[in-house]
C-alpha cells in the first residue's frame, strides 16, 4: 500500500473514530440502579448529619443540595437508559427530588419535630 | 428457573383457551371462576378504591426507539383504533380476566434482561422465547387481553421510574375505576397511586405516539418493594 492510498483510509478512520467514541453509550439499568443507590446513600448520610443540628425539613433541603453531584450522575445515566431520554429526565426531575425528600422525611418521622 | 419453550406455549395456549372461553364481553364471571379456580382468590374488584383516579397527560413525548422497531414488526400491536372505547368497563368478569392474565403471564415468562438474552440494551417483543424483560411481559398481557375482547386503546404501555430508580415498563389499563397498573414485579393489579412509581410517559390513546405524564409521582413510597 502506498502512502497515497493509505491517506484516504486514514482520513476515513479519523472521521469515524470521534463518532464512535463520543456517541453516548446506552446505560444499563444496573448502572442506573447503582448510581441511584449511591445518590440515595449520599442523601441519607447528609440528612442524618444535618438532622443532628437542625430541623428535619432543613436537613432534607441541605442533603439534596449537598448531593447534587451524585444526583447529576444518576440523572445522566438515567437519561441514556433504554426507556428514558433526556427530555423525560428534565421533566420528571422535580418529581424524583420530591420522592427522595419523602424517603428522608419518612425515615425520620416521629423522631424529631419538623 | 428456565421454562421450556413448549411448556410456555402450552401455558399461553391454555391461558388463551381459558380467556377465550369466558366470552368476556358477555360478562361471564362465573365461567371465569370455574375455568381458573386458583386465580380468583386474591384480589377482588371491590378492593379497588371507590374514587377513580387517572393519570393526567401533559403533551407529546419522544417515543422509545425499541418501541418504534417493535411497531414496524408488529404493526397491529401498536395500531390505535379511535373507534374503540377509550375506557374499560370493569365488570367482575373483566376484572377476573385481567387478574388471571396478569398472574399467568408473570408466572409463565422467565425474567431476563435484553442484554443477557440478546446482547442488546433494549428490544421489545412478545416474549416468544419464553423469556423477556418488563416490556415483553406487558406486551404479551395486552395481546392476550385484546384477544379476550378488551379495547387495546384503553391498554397503554407506560414508562415509570421504579423503586430502584431505573426505567421500567408497565401496562396501564384505563378503566372506569381509574388507571390500573399491570406489572411483572407483582401479581397485584394496583391503582396507579399505589405503585410508588414515578410516571414518565405512555402510549397515546389517539395516535401511534407517546404522551408525557408530567410530574406524576404516585404518592405511595414503596421504595423497597
Automatic annotation (TrEMBL), chain A:
Highest taxon of the lineage: Bacteria
Swiss-Prot/TrEMBL keywords: Signal
Signal sequence range: 1-27
Protein name: Lysozyme inhibitor LprI N-terminal domain-containing protein
From TrEMBL, chain B:
InterPro entries: Transglutaminase-like_Cys_pept (IPR010319)
Protein name: Transglutaminase-like domain-containing protein
Native species: Methylobacterium bullatum
Amino acid at each position: 500500500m502506498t502512502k497515497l492510498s493509505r491517506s484516504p483510509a486514514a482520513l476515513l478512520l479519523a472521521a469515524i473514530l470521534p463518532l464512535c467514541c463520543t456517541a453516548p453509550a446506552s446505560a444499563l439499568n444496573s448502572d442506573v440502579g447503582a448510581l441511584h443507590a449511591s445518590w440515595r446513600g449520599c442523601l441519607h448520610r447528609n440528612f442524618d448529619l444535618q438532622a443532628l443540628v437542625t430541623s428535619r425539613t432543613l436537613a432534607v433541603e441541605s442533603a439534596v443540595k449537598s448531593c447534587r453531584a451524585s444526583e447529576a450522575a444518576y440523572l445522566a445515566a438515567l437519561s441514556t437508559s433504554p426507556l428514558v431520554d433526556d427530555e423525560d429526565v428534565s421533566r420528571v426531575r422535580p418529581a424524583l427530588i420530591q420522592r427522595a425528600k419523602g424517603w428522608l422525611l419518612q425515615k425520620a418521622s416521629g423522631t424529631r419535630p419538623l | 428457573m428456565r421454562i421450556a419453550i413448549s411448556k410456555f406455549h402450552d401455558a399461553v395456549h391454555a391461558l388463551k383457551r381459558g380467556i377465550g372461553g369466558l366470552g368476556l364481553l358477555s360478562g361471564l364471571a362465573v365461567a371465569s371462576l370455574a375455568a381458573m379456580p386458583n386465580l380468583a382468590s386474591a384480589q377482588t374488584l371491590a378492593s379497588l378504591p371507590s374514587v377513580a383516579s387517572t393519570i393526567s397527560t401533559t403533551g407529546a413525548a419522544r417515543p422509545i426507539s425499541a418501541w418504534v422497531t417493535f411497531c414496524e414488526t408488529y404493526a397491529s400491536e401498536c395500531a390505535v383504533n379511535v373507534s374503540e372505547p377509550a375506557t374499560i368497563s370493569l365488570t367482575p368478569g373483566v376484572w377476573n380476566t385481567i387478574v388471571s392474565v396478569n398472574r399467568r403471564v408473570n408466572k409463565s415468562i422467565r425474567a431476563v434482561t435484553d442484554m443477557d438474552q440478546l446482547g442488546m440494551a433494549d428490544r421489545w417483543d412478545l416474549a416468544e422465547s419464553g423469556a423477556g424483560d418488563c416490556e415483553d411481559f406487558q406486551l404479551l398481557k395486552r395481546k392476550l387481553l385484546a384477544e379476550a375482547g378488551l379495547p387495546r386503546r384503553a391498554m397503554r404501555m407506560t414508562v415509570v421510574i421504579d423503586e430502584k430508580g431505573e426505567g421500567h415498563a408497565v401496562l396501564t389499563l384505563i378503566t372506569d375505576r381509574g388507571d390500573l397498573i399491570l406489572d411483572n414485579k407483582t401479581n397485584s393489579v394496583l391503582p396507579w397511586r399505589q405503585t410508588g412509581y414515578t410516571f414518565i410517559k405512555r402510549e397515546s390513546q389517539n395516535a401511534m405516539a407517546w404522551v408525557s405524564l408530567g410530574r406524576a409521582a404516585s404518592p405511595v413510597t414503596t421504595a423497597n418493594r
